[in-house]
Design a protein that fits this description.
By secondary structure, the chain is mainly alpha-helical. The protein has two domains: 1-116, no CATH class; 119-170, Arc Repressor Mutant, subunit A, CATH 1.10.10. It has helices spanning 7-31, 34-49, 60-91, 100-117, 122-134, 138-145, 149-169. Helix 1 (7-31) runs antiparallel to helix 2 (34-49), helix 2 (34-49) packs across helix 3 and helix 3 crosses helix 4.
């Protein structure tokens, strides 16, 4: 069966024709940039193409809005992480001048870590990062976070569980 005849593609094609301009306008209002809005709208439809059953979509505009909003938030989060990385380079005792490629790789790694730890409490994320990046002991982390050492152990168990799950999925 060719791509043109596939009913999934026909449904998404019709949705694209009827809602792409509307989505661009909606996202453009939020971002203030029509070019970024077009990128977000296009990526939104790419995500819709990846859905298991596009025929089950009951409220296309609600779905498109949700996906686009998530993409906007992901972009803002990426900018925040990139900005924090650049600031940390500027604060290094010896100047570090990362190439654009190195920056991109580090930002991608930071985003992957952020996604991995997403869903953990702020204290659990902080505990994991203090331990992994700063090499702090559980008791030191507990003092910093104002929690018991056994609570830090629970945070670490939760974080390591997420790491193992991600490795199993990969």
């Amino acid at each position: 069966m060719g791509a043109i005849q596939n009913p999934h593609y026909q449904v998404i094609g019709q949705m694209f024709k009827s809602d792409y301009h509307w989505l661009c306008t909606s996202v453009s209002r939020a971002l203030g940039c029509p070019h970024s809005a077009q990128d977000i709208a296009s990526e939104t439809f790419v995500r819709v193409l990846a859905l298991a059953d596009p025929l089950a979509i009951r409220e296309p505009r609600a779905l498109l809005t949700t996906i686009a909003r998530r993409l906007v938030y992901e972009g803002w989060r990426r900018q925040d992480l990139e900005r924090a990385y650049i600031e940390s380079l500027a604060l290094a005792p010896t100047p570090v001048h990362a190439s654009p490629e190195e920056r991109a790789l580090v930002v991608e790694a930071l985003l992957a870590a952020d996604r991995l730890l997403n869903g953990l409490s702020a204290k659990a994320r902080a505990a994991f990062l203090y331990h992994q990046l700063d090499g702090l002991t559980y008791s030191e982390i507990g003092q910093l976070l104002g929690v018991s050492t056994s609570r830090v152990q629970q945070y670490m168990a939760d974080a390591f569980k997420r790491c193992y799950q991600a490795m199993a999925e990969a």
